[in-house]
Write a sequence for this structure.
């Protein structure tokens, strides 16, 4: 630890005299600090694979450089602003909470600090000579809130996941009179967005820019000398568990371009119907919304497709009865229904019909969001990249949907996983929902079939009226 940081540490001890800066930079961080952060460039970029330690490096740099600035200004000309302002900007406040916790632990409340706000998170740190360092964690989800009088040290954390407007809004704060005005971009790649274009500044040797890209592997397949993944075994496990494009982005630090198929070698995974599926069998249900289709997809415990059904233009009550017959015929143990839109009402309806049909099966609901959809599709894509990881039935609609499903780039740089324009992804989503149930082996939303008294309550609930469906009338008509 440098003499300067030892002096800082002496003033940053808790009431129990416990050291608060007891961590050291690893070799890769030290290399980046010496060669890039200390290069004198005002614009710095650090692109590295996941879990490399980019945030900790930024905290270290901020504390060291902030103290040095405060000490310098205590004896400088009056033209320099004595308040040193440091900003950590994250895509959202939730992503900044961990860094804020680390800051609070390293710079605790006491004689040396004063907590100003908890959100946005801000603190004042007393510096030698009477100076003050103001450290703040800010969110870029509303760029208009990043207008400020001036910033000395700006750290754009996971910059590739921010809107470009955030950078355009905050950049003028770096040219304020009496401020250092230095920025460090810290990120893992995310497509070919504004940050990928910004990277061309330091790669092209633009004046005032410096940067580095740190993948886990070199192009020849050897470990990168600055990589800090604990072991080759863990890295290989990540390679097995991630779809190829995600591994390249998250661990090889590649800025991927263009569109591409999500599922590879689909036809190599086609297999004949199973004679003896291995239980437990899980059914995934993607419910039709407006002009698409409802799909039931069943997989056994080995990831082999056991059954498949697709329908359109059929009222929800008939779909519910058809689902119960489908699940009963294949001996399903669990049925997972997408609960977006009318899904919650449909799930209640299916539970009631299952009770009448004597189907002893667990019913669950899952609300798909952009994040959960991405996770389920990734898990399914990994299965296609493993020998024997998944099999599909030889249905042309099913196979064509899997082959057409692709990843396309949005203007923000993020990827959109979906069917091509004018196509459908109902089959893919039903399979992804079912497959997630097999792999998780836990209830997403516990929902066993209802007891008799609950079933009576369901018949009178508002969802039945909303769908224009009366369970009692339907039951009586079936009996007659």
């Amino acid at each position: 630890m440098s003499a300067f940081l030892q002096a800082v540490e002496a003033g940053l001890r808790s009431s129990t005299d416990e050291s608060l800066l007891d961590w050291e930079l690893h070799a890769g961080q030290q290399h980046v600090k010496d060669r890039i952060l200390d290069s004198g460039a005002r614009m710095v970029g650090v692109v590295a694979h996941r879990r490399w330690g980019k945030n900790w490096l930024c905290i270290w740099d901020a504390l060291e450089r902030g103290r040095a600035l405060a000490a310098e200004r205590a004896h400088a000309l009056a033209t320099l602003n004595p308040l040193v302002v440091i900003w950590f900007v994250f895509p959202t406040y939730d992503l900044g909470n961990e860094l804020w916790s680390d800051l609070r632990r390293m710079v605790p409340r006491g004689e040396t600090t004063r907590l100003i706000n908890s959100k946005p998170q801000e603190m004042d740190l007393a510096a030698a000579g009477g100076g003050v360092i103001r450290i703040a964690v800010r969110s870029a989800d509303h760029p208009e809130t990043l207008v400020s009088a001036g910033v000395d040290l700006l750290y754009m954390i996971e910059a590739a996941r921010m809107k470009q407007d955030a950078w355009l809004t905050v950049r003028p704060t770096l040219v304020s009179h009496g401020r250092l005005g230095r920025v460090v971009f810290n990120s893992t790649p995310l497509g070919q967005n504004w940050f990928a274009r910004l990277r061309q500044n330091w790669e092209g040797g633009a004046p005032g820019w410096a940067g580095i890209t740190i993948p886990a592997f070199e192009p020849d397949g050897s470990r990168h000398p600055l990589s800090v993944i604990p072991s080759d075994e863990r890295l290989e496990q990540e390679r097995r568990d991630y779809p190829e494009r995600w591994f390249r982005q998250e661990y090889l630090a590649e800025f991927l371009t263009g569109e591409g198929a999500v599922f590879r070698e689909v036809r190599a995974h086609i297999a004949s119907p199973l004679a003896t599926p291995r239980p437990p069998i899980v059914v995934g249900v993607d419910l039709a919304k407006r002009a698409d289709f409802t799909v039931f997809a069943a997989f056994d415990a080995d990831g082999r497709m056991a059954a498949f059904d697709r329908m359109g233009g059929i009222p929800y009550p008939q779909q519910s009865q058809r689902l119960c017959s489908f699940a009963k015929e294949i001996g399903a143990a669990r049925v997972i229904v997408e609960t977006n839109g009318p899904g919650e009402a449909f799930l209640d309806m299916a539970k009631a019909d299952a009770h009448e049909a004597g189907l002893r099966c667990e019913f669950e609901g899952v609300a798909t969001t952009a994040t959960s959809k991405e996770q389920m599709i990734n898990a399914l894509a990994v299965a296609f990249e493993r020998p024997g990881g998944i099999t599909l039935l030889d249905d042309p609609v099913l196979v064509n949907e899997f082959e057409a499903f692709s990843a396309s780039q949005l203007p923000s740089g993020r990827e959109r996983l979906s069917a091509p324009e004018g196509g459908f992804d109902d089959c893919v989503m039903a399979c992804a929902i079912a497959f997630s149930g097999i792999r998780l082996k836990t209830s997403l939303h516990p929902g066993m079939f209802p007891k008799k008294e609950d079933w009576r309550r369901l018949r009178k609930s508002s969802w039945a009226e909303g769908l224009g469906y009366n369970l009692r009338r339907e039951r009586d008509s079936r009996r007659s």
Q: What stands out?
A: Residues 3-250 form a domain with the Rossmann fold fold (CATH 3.40.50.300). Confidence is low (pLDDT under 50) at residues 7-22, 440-475. The CA atoms of residues 345 and 461 lie 10 Å apart.
